[in-house]
Task: structure prediction
Amino acid sequence: MKLGELAARLGCELRGDGELEIRGVAGLDEAGPGDLSFLANPRYAEKLRATRAGAVVVAPGHEAPVPSLVCDNPYLAFSRAVALVRAQPRPAPGVHPSAHVHATAVVGDGVHVGALAVVGAGVRVGARSVLHPHVVLYDGVLVGEDCELHSGVQVRERCRLGDRVVVQNGAVIGADGFGFARDAEGRYHKFPQVGIVVVEDDVEIGALAAIDRAALGETRIGRGSKLDNLVQVGHSVTIGEDSVLAGQVGVAGSTRIGRRVTLAGQVGVAGHLEIGDGVVATAQTGIPSSVEPGAVVSGYPAIENRAWLKASAVFAKLPELLRRLRELERKVESLLVR
Amino acid sequence: MKLGELAARLGCELRGDGELEIRGVAGLDEAGPGDLSFLANPRYAEKLRATRAGAVVVAPGHEAPVPSLVCDNPYLAFSRAVALVRAQPRPAPGVHPSAHVHATAVVGDGVHVGALAVVGAGVRVGARSVLHPHVVLYDGVLVGEDCELHSGVQVRERCRLGDRVVVQNGAVIGADGFGFARDAEGRYHKFPQVGIVVVEDDVEIGALAAIDRAALGETRIGRGSKLDNLVQVGHSVTIGEDSVLAGQVGVAGSTRIGRRVTLAGQVGVAGHLEIGDGVVATAQTGIPSSVEPGAVVSGYPAIENRAWLKASAVFAKLPELLRRLRELERKVESLLVR
Amino acid sequence: MKLGELAARLGCELRGDGELEIRGVAGLDEAGPGDLSFLANPRYAEKLRATRAGAVVVAPGHEAPVPSLVCDNPYLAFSRAVALVRAQPRPAPGVHPSAHVHATAVVGDGVHVGALAVVGAGVRVGARSVLHPHVVLYDGVLVGEDCELHSGVQVRERCRLGDRVVVQNGAVIGADGFGFARDAEGRYHKFPQVGIVVVEDDVEIGALAAIDRAALGETRIGRGSKLDNLVQVGHSVTIGEDSVLAGQVGVAGSTRIGRRVTLAGQVGVAGHLEIGDGVVATAQTGIPSSVEPGAVVSGYPAIENRAWLKASAVFAKLPELLRRLRELERKVESLLVR
Result:
């Protein structure tokens, strides 16, 4: 694709030769003459000067030694360029002969059902959605339009996915929540998990993530939210729109997470809490109680991030602090007996 | 089902109209006129007064504005009511024609083997057990009676499951333990993992949990224990009866966990330890050494829970503490030079 | 196998009756008369004296009450003995009739493709490799010689595995990395992940581990490294040779991990860091910044291990420390007003 056409499609200002043919995409370090690259983080501005890329996407104010596409959000523009330059072949519409699609299932126009997939009774799959090999949809599942479910994904009975939902390999949507009633002898009895999971439009769910169905009502993942690999979402949790849960995050049952929340890697959130809109929790934070909107929290148990950073700095000095305390105690004793 | 019949089946005292028809189950907030609801946590007693439920299960001493079933353990009684009112259709007995069941495998009466399941040589599956689609049982696996293995579950060679075991989607039972011998050049060589996993009766294992086979003997999950999603159990671990491991807990190899132990979410337990009966570890606790029976532990490294709560409260004040220490040092110096 | 033959094959010194027939392998506690056992950890030397094993592998300087094989690395020698005595039957070469192997895929001599496996277009599988049932290889995947991929493993498009790679059940290699560009309205847009994963020779990957493909270039797991269950490796991460990542470790995107690094269970490493050769991080460590080669780190945020051990010991005493500080403040005030 010519650089000029890319500029037009991405809505970027073109600086330099629009006839340049772009054949690939790469980082600033790896890019060669036919590649488009980008500068999003000003920290790497030096790499821009040394790049061998054919062209780059940059923000206004950056001078590139090669033809460039200029726009306010170079990372977003470049990500769109990747989709244009490295367009992935879409599996052809049709149902693979080895797939098992129940007679009562309804599959929309242009849907691809891969080898050995299982589509249960009463399932509906919207137009142009792709089920890769070995996907299993239990009875009554609804999948919207333009979804992509990778191999090994399991969706349990009656769960519902919106449009443009992407589910990476091996994720499990709608397994039973972890609910047991204890009897007088201390034995646990299963609380039947008869609720469902609702995944709204434009959500992405990572590989081997587990989103449990509600005991009675529904577990809900809000529009546009992104969940990374190996994330655990307990039963009856709700997550607002445009929130991000990074790898290995765990959220216990019935907690309500707001909009535009960011939970970094390995964060844990206890059950029955309210996590306000815009909350950010840094990696490995453990959240035992509700968090006000807009707060940035860290640590275990979670406290305000700046307070945690300062306290952590002192933590490493605790042995010295104890020594100084003992020294003071000695001095004060000597003063008291004077 | 009529409320009176439910009362009889659950062994509850009936207050109000036994002819009331119960058609659904729901939480106090969501329940409508045909629904049964419940109050288990007295914290929500106010919701009871405002509920629109048709009937409720409550403990003695709670006055409900609607017909009620009274018993000592409302949560347990309600969970049984859910099973009665929302009975899930059981897959019909029989082997799906697309399943691959080895000629030497023995499948009991009333067993369901789903589409594309694989049942290896010498496997035995007890009466009435259900293997959902895409379950894989390696050679020599034993599965007891009335088990339910959800789609995507993998059980490795020679592992044994008792009766009434439930395994959620994608869980892996019996993968090789993490054992390697290091040579003089610092390279790792696989220690063949020739042991097995034994899962006793009434155990439930969560989605995408991994229970490793022992190197030589067996890994064992005790009767009635419940393991949540994404739990990791290392080789040769033993877990006693009626223990609970919440989501994303990890237990390293050869550790022995007692009876009625509770490990909350994301807890990590080091290898070769003894965790006594009745131990409770709060969320994200890291346990580096053995724990006495009955202890409640928290933190990383784990200490007694109350001590940890107090120390954590001081942690947030560490910068202030350091400031006060410096102030004292100044004052004491001034006193010393008087 | 006779003990004398084992000695010869393992390169150990034989002490005692070489005609002894070894029929099994077991730990010192469990071993019976026909079993070979071993002593690797001198802590268990007492068990050696009491063992009922038929023979043992020990290091020089240990006196065993039974015939023994003596060598410098008894654990390594014993692990080789296990492979000889308990040799696992290898699945017979051939493609199961229910497997779907694309016409353009090339499968080497002696390869086993199990039931219901899916092998995509252009895939190459090297000689003697084993694909267990339900393995899915997307188009363009390369698998080397003598690999073993257990049931439920998913390998995404164009990813490459070297020789003698072992992948435990359900692991996902090459799912999309977690990359999204945020627009001015705060919505996330997928950054297409067009890179790959390269797994070098002699790597083992645990059950339900997730190794993400790079956004643009490659994610790389170095020769001989071993990754345990439920490990998360973000996009564009590189791991050097002979490193070990224990269960539930998470490594965020673009981080470079050196050679012979050990990350213990549940360790988390932030993105875009350099973790030097030989670094050791103890369990649950959270690493927010780069680590020098050879360092041993602990805690959250990670600090030098010995400093962390000392500080952790003081942490538990924080309430007492605060009390002593207050007491001092009172005393100093009384001195100041004298």
Summary: Chain B has a mean pLDDT of 96. Chain B touches chain C through 66 residues (CB under 8 Å). The radius of gyration of chain B is 26 Å.
